[in-house]
Amino acid sequence: MFIIFEKFADLITYNLFGLEVGSKLGESVRFFFYDTTKIIFLLAIMIFFISIVRSFFPPEKTKKLLSNYRKITAHVMASLLGVVTPFCSCSSVPIFIGFVESGIPLGVTFSFLITSPIVNEVALVMLYTLFGWKIGTLYLVSGILVGIVGGIVIEALGMEKYVEEYVYQISAADSEVEELDWSDRIDFAKAEVKEIVSRVWKYVIIGIGIGAAIHGYAPAALLAEYAGANNPLSVIAAVIVGIPLYANAVGTIPIVEALMGKGVALGTALSFMMATTALSLPAMIILRKVIKPKLITVFVTVVGVSIIGVGYMFNFVMNFV
C-alpha cells in the first residue's frame, strides 16, 4: 500500500534533489517526504471513518452514559469513552466543567481526561498500521489502564475540595442530543477531516522533521546504549523530558518511529509519547483554571508513575513478543 509513497520519496530525494543513496542527508530527506505523504494520507482517511464513530458520541450523550455507571465500572466506561471521544488540551476545561456539573464523580472525570489524549484514536490506528497489531493493542490496553488506575487513585484520595469553587456553582440545563442521519454524519466526518488536518499538520511536519533528523544523523549505537531496554533509567528520563513539551499523539509518532529505528526501546519511546500528550505543560496550565495546584500535582504524579510503569512493562513484554 505504501509503495507509492516510497517511490514518491525516492523520486524527490534522489532524482529531483540528486542526493546520494545511503547518505545521512539523503536518508533524512527521504524519511521526511515518505512519512509526510504517508501520515497525511492516513490522517485524512482515518479521521473520516473515526469521525463517523464520533458522531454517535457527542459530549451530552457521553455525560449521560457515564452518569449511569458507578464505582469501577464507571472508570472503565469513562476510559473506553475517552478512546472514541475527541479531546485535546484546549477542550479540557469545558469538558471538565460539564462532567462535574452533571454530577459525575471527580475520579471518573479524570479517568476520561487521562485516557482521551493518551489513546488518541487516530494515532492508535496509525500505531496499528505502522507498528502492527501487537504494539497497537498493548498501547490501547495500557492507555486505558492508566486512565482507570489514575481515576481510581484520585477518587480514593478525596480530592474534590481541590476543584475551584466556581465549577460546582455552575448549573447548566440538559440540552437535547441532536439526532443525525447518515448524510449528516458524512458531512460531519468531512468537516472533521478538514478541521483536524488543518489544525495538526504543523505538528505532524515538525514531528516528521525531528524524526528525519534522528533517522539520518542520530548515532544508533549511542541511543541504543542509553535509551535501550537495558538502561533502567531510560523510561524515567523519557517521561521527564516529555512533560514540558507540547505535542499531540499524531505529531509524536514520527519521532517514536525514528527513535525505535535507532534502537531505542519500545517502552521508552512510547512513554515519551504518553508524557507529551497526557502531561504537557500547556495542558496543565489550562487545567489550572478549574483545579488547584495540589490536585494538579497529584494528577501529574499518579499519571507519571503509571506511564513509567507502562514503559517498563512494554520493555519487559517485548522481550517475549
UniProtKB/TrEMBL annotation:
Transmembrane segments: 39-57, 78-100, 106-131, 138-158, 200-223, 235-256, 268-288, 295-314
Compartment annotation: Cell membrane
InterPro entries: DUF318 (IPR005524), UPF0718_permease (IPR053166)
Keywords of this entry: Cell membrane, Membrane, Transmembrane, Transmembrane helix
Domain of life: Bacteria
Topological relation to the membrane, as annotated: Multi-pass membrane protein
Keyword Cell membrane: yes
A GO CC annotation given for this chain: plasma membrane
UniProt similarity note: Belongs to the UPF0718 family.
Name of the protein described by the UniProt record: Permease
UniProt organism field: Halanaerobium praevalens (strain ATCC 33744 / DSM 2228 / GSL)
